[in-house]
Amino acid sequence: MASEQTTFYTIELSGMEFHAYHGCYELERRVGNRFEVGLSITAELGEIAAHDAVEEAVNYLHVYETVRDTMAVTQRTVERVAMNIIEALYDRYPRIRHIRCTVAKLAPPLGGKVARVAVTLEK
């Protein structure tokens, strides 16, 4: 008797840019900065492909909207921002099994030329 194997699929959203007000300094939280978010989401496929069941899939439009809404909530650290995104996506999609989320602050105010600083969380 053959054992049933679970099939997984991964969707990726990269280069999502937002103007947001995250930062440990009051000036950053007042004037904001540009941020970039990248996601890799692995979920159980189930019957999505067999039945062409888009309503059961992890919908990348809804993922983007979740990221956008989460980015609008000011936090002091990009670590907290990334965790908020991950938690919101797990809450919305019970088929998700793994998320890799990178949040980068573009041109951070460090007193020199730095293209970006980024944090990546996986859960």
Explain what you see.
The protein is an alpha+beta fold and 123 residues long. The protein has a single domain (8-122), classed as 2-Layer Sandwich (GTP Cyclohydrolase I, domain 2). Helices cover 30% and strands 35% of the residues. The chain has four helices and four strands, in the order E-H-E-H-H-H-E-E. Strands 1-2-3-4 form a four-stranded antiparallel sheet. Helix 3 (60-71) packs antiparallel against helix 4 (78-92). The chain is elongated. The model has no long low-confidence stretch (mean pLDDT 93).
Name the CATH architecture: 2-Layer Sandwich
Task: Report how far apart the termini are.
Answer: 34 Å
Low-confidence stretches: none
At the third CATH level, what is the topology name? GTP Cyclohydrolase I, domain 2
CATH top-level class = Alpha Beta
- Rounded average pLDDT: 93
Counting DSSP E segments of at least 2 residues, the number of strands comes to: 4
**Percent of sequence in beta strands:** 25-35%
From the alpha carbons, calculate the radius of gyration and give it in angstroms: 17 Å
The major beta sheet can be summarized as: 4 strands, antiparallel
